[in-house]
Amino acid sequence: MNFQWDILSNGGLVQEMAHIANGRDPGNCVSLLRVNSANSSQSNMLILQESCTDATGSYVIYAPVDIIAMNVVLSSGDPDYVALLPSGFAILPDGPGHNGGGILEIGSGGSLLTVAFQILVDSVTPAKLSLGSVATVNSLIKCTVERIRAAVMCNNA
């Protein structure tokens, strides 16, 4: 699997700790990922991820989870113990394309990418978000879109 699009991995080694298939395609699954990063603040973090792809499109939904909380759940504990703020993206075909002679070409119309994030911010009213917070979110979205594009282009080469 390719995790280079994910800002949470931050260049670290991503290890799949659990893989639960969801259908015939091995890429359609729920995974529990561990990021082995030099950043010590991420050492207690896992990523719970679901991915799915078929002819209508692809999506990846993921959420960072605390390793201690996940261990409680994996030991038959209460799943409400794990706080989830899922984020993700979907890639949908943008319709068929046409070649120079007006002939319809399936699969040449490009793609539509939708990205969604849930992020904890200070408890202030939305009208009072700092410019720094807005800039950080804009940077996160831009970086993620660029990484997804690079990963997709790499897979098509």
Would you spell out the secondary-structure blueprint of this structure?
Blueprint: E1 13-21, E2 29-36, E3 45-54, E4 57-66, H1 67-74, E5 87-93, E6 97-98, E7 104-105, E8 111-116, H2 131-156
Antiparallel strand pairs: 1-2, 2-3, 3-4, 4-5, 5-8, 6-7
Strand content: 25-35%
Strand order of the largest sheet: 1-2-3-4-5-8
Which whole number gives the mean pLDDT? 79
Overall 3D shape:
globular
- Output the radius of gyration: 18 Å
What does this structure look like?
This is HD-Zip IV C-terminal domain-containing protein. InterPro entries: HD-Zip_IV (IPR042160), HD-Zip_IV_C (IPR057993). It comes from Hibiscus sabdariffa. With about 160 residues, the chain is an alpha+beta fold. The protein has one domain (about 15-95, about 105-155). It is built from 2 helices and 8 strands, in the order E-E-E-E-H-E-E-E-E-H. The chain has helices at about 65-75, 130-155; strands at about 15-20, 30-35, 45-55, 55-65, 85-95, 95-100, 105, 110-115. The strands form 2 sheets. Strands 1-2-3-4-5-8 form a 6-stranded antiparallel beta sheet. A hairpin with an 8-residue loop joins strand 2 and strand 3. The chain is globular, with a radius of gyration of 18 Å. About 5% of the residues are buried. The model has no long low-confidence stretch (mean pLDDT about 80).
